[in-house]
Design a protein that fits this description.
single chain, about 290 residues, alpha/beta, 7-stranded mixed β-sheet, 13 strands, globular
Amino acid sequence: MYEKVEECPICKKKQFDNYMICDDHSVTGESFAIVKCTSCGFVFTNPRPAAASLGKYYESNEYISHTDKANSPIHLIYKLVRNYTLNQKVSILDRILNRKGSVLDYGCGTGHFVQTARKKGWQAFGYEPDDQARKLADIKNPSCILDSIAKCPDEIDIITAWHVIEHVADINTTIKQLIKKLKTGGHIIMALPNHRSMDAQHYQEYWAAYDVPRHLSHFDQDSMRQLAKKFKLTLKETLPMKFDSFYVSMLSEKYKGGSILNALTTGLKSNNKAKSTGEYSSLIYIFQK
């Protein structure tokens, strides 16, 4: 079962150009269209699976953020790097607030970030809609993992969404919910793939971060500035996620039947080019309410 998006999620206009056809390399092998709004330039998967059928596209041991398993060398590398990046992420919280406070991790997966933040003195909560991932997160973080945003305390200092918003069917409702839970002057941190990066341009339809149909939206810095304006948020800072170019390139080479050496070369070239363009494979956006 599929549904067609009739209005651009950002500007509400109804005219789209075909942008790209990508395959679901992870689970089903199905092909999906990606379109681009002719008005604001936002890029999104359309048509897409209806909400009732979207779950089957996550039913794979390859989907590491929901299973916590490392079934391949690429996933093992991911888990090794994750230990370093988790501490980096908490250091961003410390720098923004300059004290320990409350944080909600929206789409917390198996709960590693919540666990790390708690160990470092934060009052941390996680929201996760997937039952399997939520159970694993709850083992690490008893009584801190929520199955509904409504259960989250109000007046949260910082809300994080690490590679989550691209999965969300209704961007506008979700961001409104998050803003409502945030205290005035609080921050929302979103990490997202960037389809304007060099590695995205290099791999085209094989770029692993398109990840159709699990990724319903495909962001760039322009679309994030538009979202900030739409929701009266101030975009305070944009930071690179330099490891992502290597990880995404390794997955992309896997889909193409290429080599790890090619992936490392492409990841390095992408990061080097981004030093001047700012277009890293993934970017962290820090907004203030």
